[in-house]
Amino acid sequence: MEQLAAIHLPHPEWDAKNLFVRDDKKRNYYLIAVKGDKRVDLKEFRRQHGLRGLSFASADDLLAILGLIPGAVSPLGVLNDTQRRVHVYLDREFAGSMIGVHPNDNTATVWLLADDLLALLKQHGNDAAYTDL
After folding, report:
1. CA-CA distance, 17 to 35, in Å (whole number)?
2. 47-81 residue pLDDT tens
3. How far apart are CA 104 and CA 101, in angstroms?
4. Is there a contact between 19 and 114 (Cβ–Cβ < 8 Å)?
């Protein structure tokens, strides 16, 4: 996110920071997207959603499940999740607005309507919803 701040982009206020996390049993995976300047309290997120303990997924899990490498995490990578294992949570601040995400490569950013992104992920078969973060 620091490197991104040094680049002039058309809609920096809508850039997403994406976290790929898993539960402590490695059974459930979550992609959490928030505005780039926001911090996510994983303990609070876990409590709000009634989840097991959370930690960041490994680079191996990221590659195996989303086909992505560290630094390129994106909600669009969920389209590579053939087993529909990943639950997606977008910060409610994106609702009705744009969201800037990587097109599965961290050298570019695309902006789309967050509502359209959520609909696309649901159509793909993954659980996806807005949440307060």
Report:
1. 6
2. 999 999 999 999 999 999 999 999 999 999 999 99
3. 8
4. no
Bridge pairing between strands 86-91 and 29-35: parallel
What does the alpha-carbon distance between residue 12 and residue 28 come to, in Å, rounded to a whole number? 31
Nearest CA-CA partner of 113 in 133, 90, 131, 97: 97
SS3 29: strand
Distance CA 62, CA 8 (A): 28
CA distance 98 to 7: 19
In angstroms, the CA 54 to CA 14 distance is: 26
DSSP secondary-structure letter at 12?
G
**Which pLDDT belongs to residue 37?**
85
